[in-house]
Amino acid sequence: MSQFRIQSHPILPIPQREAISFTWQGKTLQGYADETIAAALFANGIRVFGYHPKDGSPQGIFCANGQCAQCTVIADGLAVKACMTLLRPGMNVQPLSGLPSLPEAPPARQFHPTRIVSTEVLIIGGGPAGLSAAIELGQRGIRTLIVDDKHRLGGKLVLQTHRFFGSINACYAGTRGIDIATRLENEVAQYPTVTSWLNTTAVAVFSDKRVGVVRSLIDEQGNSEYVLIEPQVLLVATGAREKSLTFKGNTLPGVYGAGAFQTLVNRDLVRAAERLFIVGGGNVGLIAGYHALQAGIQVVGLVEALPECGGYKVHKDKLVRMGVPIYTSHTVVSANGKESVESVTIARVDENWQAIRGTERTFECDTLLIAVGLDPVDEFYRKAKEFGMVAYAAGDADEVAEASAAMFSGKIRGLEIARFLGKNGFEIPTEWLRTAEILKSRPGEVTHETIPEEEAVFPVLHCSQEIPCNPCTSVCSQGAIYIDPEDIRKVPDYIAKKLGVTCIACEKCVTICPGLAITLVDLRKEAEFAHVTIPYEFEKESLKAGDWVTVTDTAGNLLGEVEVIRTRIAKATDRTLLVKVRAPRELATKIAGIRVQENWVAQPTEQWVERLEDDTIVCRCERVTLAEIKEVIRSGVRDMNEIKALTRAGMGACGGKTCSSLIKRAFRELGVPPAEVTENTLRPLFIEVPLGVFAGVKEE
Amino acid sequence: MSLSAYDVIIIGAGSVGTPLAWQLAEAGLKTLVIDRFASVGQGSNKAAIGGIRATHSDIAKIRICLKSIEIFSTWKETYGDDIGWLQGGYAFVAYRPQEEKTLKDLLVLQKQFGLEIDWYDREDYLKLIPSLNPEGLIGGTFSPGDGSASPMLSALAFERRARKLGAEFRYGEVVTAIRQEQGRVRGVITDHGEYAAPIVVNAAGGWAKEVAAMVGIDVPVQPDSHEGGITEPVAPFLRPMVVDIRPIEPTPQMAGSANYYFYQHHTGQIIFCITPNPPILGTDVRETSVFLPQVAQRMIDLMPRLRNLRVRRTWRGLYPMTPDGSPIVGEVEEVQGYINAVGMCGQGFMLGPGLAVYLRKLITGDRDEETQEVLDKLSLYREFAKAEKLK
Q1: Contact B152 A645 (CB under 8 A)
Q2: Do the chains contact at B313 and A683, CB–CB below 8 Å?
Q3: Which of A288, B126, B250, B346 fits as disulfide partner to B319, beta carbons 3.0 to 4.6 Å?
Q4: What CATH number is given to the structural domain containing B45?
Q5: B179-223 confidence digits (pLDDT tens)
Q6: How far apart are CA B331 and CA A615, in angstroms?
Q7: Are residues A136 and A222 in the same domain?
């Protein structure tokens, strides 16, 4: 199974784990006891988990987050979500094919009454927002219960290998997401009034102001317990879910969300793809591409429908420098393949976002990541408000933005809740509110890079777009990197001359920049050559002195081959390799990065592939096509509940989490104003739960 | 403000109003249906679980539901739409001598009415429903002619058919008054406009009392609410609707319930519902935390294998109850042209199509003896003496 395991990683530690055996379709395979069935299957090269009961279409991973049911398999006779169920030794795993049969069971010996637990504050979601709020509440001695459906706290932080943007004072900017998760987790653990329930999924908010949660794996038998929680205040910090996109082949196994990919790669340490293509040039897509490269996965390309990527320019630049082409004003025409993705066809778009015939290109790949934005997971909040509960939302559940903003919004909500509960003696600092706004800012204008006038040694800041980020200013012992402290969105300036100081070539700014956008040029060493230090987040063994590397400018243009004269990695550089190259002086300030991926990876196939089958799916649970939805809308239907009744779109396991926004989009595309559309009624459960769990039946 | 003339205006596009619109349109009447929700069946229709049986103990309901079953069971072959009809039968289980006696007593009456229903002893019953908990099982009744269909698909089918025949439906519109002149109905006024018609049918379900009050009529209809749920789909394993009428008294840990029932829908999903005891009065349809643990314990106790079946969604719907458990249907003495089709007691879905056939006869003046008998039984002016044995 080693072929699809990540054996080494520049950032993530690879733990020693004990292998266990399980069977898939009767064949014995190896996996790990602490991993999900989905991870074990992927590690064995299995991408197709079953076939849909309605039309036999192959099914695989989609959300990897327990939200959909696309990854359902039969494990020891029971239909389970492969992405949420842990592998057990000897487990008999079968693909789902048709409707699962319900196994027989002996009469229940005992029904345990449902436990009702009271708390001052219930936080749903132990990610950046929830944990930041819990810290504020814990500091003030408020009884707080955090429920989180994963086995550790941190939310999506635990998937982020890169250094964070944002403010160094407000939200750990410059630190890697995985390490922020650990810090927050440790801090929360210090407060005796804060309790965390892991492996605990919130499933509903009820009108009697109780929140139903399912605690799984509570004992050695693997039992689950249903608990009703009565909070005085509910904080919904449930994050966001990935939006989907409609194109032919959009539900083929191998088409899935960027977040799902990060889960498989960075949490499960599975090399989930060999060749990856990405849809969407926001931060999520750009970062996923970077994480793929770090995991040794080829990134064939990225399409973005807009003329420019919506994510941070430094994220985009990073990918481009490493050799990943970005196709702006392009869209996906189809994902092609029989059982799973074999290639993707893209095309240029016209001013109406329609693919222009004749501009199609096809690229071979086995995975197509959808990173076209996020929707808040706000169903708990909406229900709580409907039922008159005291409820707050923080982080992406409130407003989709960066994790740095989520942490800060969590802090503010924590204080707001403390004040609501009568804790006095503090004010919410007004500057916090401004910081919160700044952290949520979309990237601003791109200015030109300012290259410092030639000196002996100096940093080059390849950072020309206004984004909320300031770690570089905090590490310069000379104070020579300046960003207006009132507005950390400003582009940094190198102001040594103005201050009358000189760079000491400590390379700290090179190390800490989350965008890997700072290099250090040293002209002192040789007459004709400059020494340039470049940050590099790949394995340290991959480069050594004497190697020749291809360097590029910010836009990814090749500048030539240069010799590596030194590499340095130290505790202080925190897994960032500092690569010093010797380059001709005239190139020195242009060099922004090292190419890591060869040209051939990104080449299209000779002819483009056209997927003939019109299988553009809107509701993946019930396999409802875009054509069916549009036909219903054209017939005059305006109530999404009626669309549901007519087509079953939204009746599946996920409860309309993915299709609702696609249906709204179909209305827009057909020119129906949103005011005419009635939204789906929101109903529990938000996650499916066995009747036995509600009844309090336990495996003896 | 528009003033259009219709033959009949129906208030409520639900389980009762929609098939009635179809029947009236079939009869060539210019029909308008007005509903407060955004589309068909969005009130209590979509909250119905879909059971359809003729095996009642009241002759009017038996006759109506026999007609309904005829319509549901032949709909697909007649009109082409799949409404999910499944003739799985109804099974009332007995685990105690009390229920055995109730069911057997009732059986005598039901057989008199010519209904196809029989008592099965334990062993035969287990052959019929192998998943039942055998511990303590005495037996039960089974009526193979009963069944189930999708309330939503049925309402859509009736509505589409009615539209095709010229009926009009106005959604998102609330009737605010019923116009009368000299003791006769003239039409209705809504928050959007005014519509004229000599006949107005109150098919407003849980809101029927308010609508009747618009013509000064007091109908003894009091809605209460039941919660229901649906599971993930699994391969077919259960044919009939299973009904357990054992009441359970409330305890400090658990709310009481009068009965509960569930069946496997044509999609493979189990749909289930419980009757709270004491009833929860009012029109609140927001989901509560009481329902799932309560119904899950009872269902698993009856059918142990259900423990592994995952619940997908829950909801709560209204049961517009009357004092005796039978609907209130027909004309009133005080206002000419006003017709009640109210108080379905949670059985609007199974009663709706059959009732539409009788109401059509009433409205078109084609009242035969059978229609008169049914209407007499369901008259507003009857003695509301005692509740039906099995509602």
Answers
A1: yes
A2: yes
A3: B346
A4: 3.50.50.60
A5: 999 999 999 999 999 999 999 999 999 999 999 999 999 999 999
A6: 53
A7: yes
Model confidence pLDDT, tens digit, residues A47-67: 999 999 999 999 999 999 999
Measured between beta carbons, which residues in chain A are less than 8 angstroms from residue B136? none
CATH of the domain at B115: 3.30.9.10
Residue A645 to residue B296, Cβ atoms within 8 A: no
Cross-chain residue pair A678–B38, CB shorter than 8 Å: yes
Q: Specify the number of domains making up chain A.
A: 4
Question: H/E/C letters for each residue in A331-343?
Answer: EEEEEECCCCCCE
Residue A448 has pLDDT above 90, yes or no: no
Q: Does B82 contact chain A (CB < 8 Å)? A: no
Eight-state DSSP code of residue A248: B
| Other CB atoms within 10 A of residue A118 CB | 13
A262 falls within a domain = no
Query: Rounded to a whole number, what is the distance in Å from the CA of B286 to chain A's nearest CA?
Result: 6
The shortest CB-CB distance from B287 to any of A69, A206, A690 is to A206
Report, in angstroms and rounded to the nearest whole number, the Rg of chain B calculated over CA atoms.
Answer: 21
The reply to whether B120 falls in a domain is: yes
State the pLDDT at residue B304.
98
Is B390 within the bounds of a domain?
no
Q: Do A534 and A653 fall into the same domain? A: no
Distance (Å) from the alpha carbon of A233 to chain B's nearest alpha carbon: 17
Compare CB distances from B306 to A212, A639, A691 and report the shortest one's residue.
Answer: A691
Q: Read off the tokens for A501.
A: 């100081």
- Looking at the structure, do residues B226 and B373 belong to the same domain, yes or no? no
Largest CA distance in chain B: 67
Q: Rounded CA gap, A40 and A45, in Å?
A: 9
A101 to B304: CB separation less than 8 angstroms, yes or no: no
Angle at alpha carbon of residue A362, lines to A360 and A363, rounded to 5°? 145
Q: If you count them, how many residues does chain A have?
A: 700
Q: By the CB < 8 Å criterion, does B248 face chain A?
A: no
Identify which of B40, B172, B311 has the shortest CB distance to residue A694: B311
CATH code assigned at A150? 3.50.50.60
CATH number of the structural domain spanning residue A66 = 3.10.20.440
Half-sphere exposure of A198 (CA within 13 A, CB side): 10
Q: Does A88 share its domain with A45?
A: yes
Bond prior to A674 in cis (omega within 30° of 0): no
| Rounded average pLDDT over A256-268 | 96
ipTM attached to this prediction: 0.96
pLDDT the model gives residue B2: 47
pLDDT of residue B3: 52
Q: What percent of chain B has pLDDT over 70?
A: 97
Task: Find residue B46's DSSP bridge partners.
Answer: none
**Do residue B193 and residue B229 come from a single domain?**
no
Q: Which of A42, A76, A101 is the last residue of a domain?
A: A101
Chain A residues in contact with B314 by the CB 8 A cut-off are: 204, 683-685
**pLDDT tens, residue by residue, A88-108:** 999 999 999 999 999 999 999
A236 and A384 in one domain? yes
Q: At what angle do helices A177-189 and A128-139 cross, to 10 degrees?
A: 30
Query: How far A596 CA sits from the closest chain B CA (Å)?
Result: 47
Q: B254 to each of A115, A226, A684, B289, B297, how far by Cα in Å?
A: 12, 15, 21, 11, 10
Q: Quick one: average pLDDT of A104-117?
A: 95
Same structural domain for residues A180 and A52?
no
Count of CB pairs separated by less than 8 Å, A with B:
158
- What lies within 8 Å, CB to CB, of B309 at 6+ separation is A102, A690, A691, B231, B232, B234, B270
pLDDT score recorded for residue B1:
41
Domain of B23 in residue numbering reads as: 3-77+151-221+325-377
Domain that holds residue A660: 617-676
Q: Give the pLDDT confidence of B236-254 residue by residue, as tens digits.
A: 999 999 999 999 999 988 9
